[in-house]
Design a protein that fits this description.
The chain is an alpha+beta fold. It has one domain (3-100): Glutaredoxin (3-Layer(aba) Sandwich), CATH 3.40.30.10. Helix content is 47%, strand content 16%. It has five helices and four strands, in the order H-E-H-E-H-E-E-H-H. A four-stranded mixed beta sheet has the order 2-1-3-4, with helices on both faces. Strand 1, helix 2 (32-42) and strand 2 form a beta-alpha-beta unit. Helix 2 (32-42) runs parallel beside helix 4 (84-92). It is globular and about 35 Å long. The two termini are 24 Å apart. This is Glutaredoxin.
């Protein structure tokens, strides 16, 4: 991963409360897992989305950045949370809202 790409990831994660690296975008998700993650997150406020399909370097780079092999990937309050399965579990347990509010560590 180039230093420039890492800086782009750092900036997105640092400057946005909720970041979703997804296939497609908020208007047109390109996979069911990305759509589900977006739907869950939008209930909790503004979501900054990054379309990994628009740039192959971003698609591969985010996997290296987070050390997580699949897309979508969620970052909350600057910390990596996981993918759509983890997000759904957090939502079902009522922990996602607390995490977004900064009441529990991500």
């Amino acid at each position: 991963m180039t230093p420039e790409l890492k800086a782009r990831f750092d900036e997105a994660v640092r400057n946005n409360k909720i970041v979703l690296f997804m296939k497609g975008n908020a208007m047109f998700p390109q996979c069911g897992f990305s759509a589900r993650a977006l739907q869950i997150l939008q209930q909790h406020g503004q979501v900054h989305t990054v379309d990994v399909l628009a740039d192959p370097e971003v698609r591969q780079g985010i996997k290296e950045y987070s050390n997580w092999p699949t897309i979508p990937q969620v970052f909350i309050n600057g910390k990596f949370v996981g993918g759509s399965d983890i997000l759904m579990e957090l939502e079902e347990r009522g922990e996602l809202a607390e995490m977004i509010a900064g009441k529990t560590p991500a």
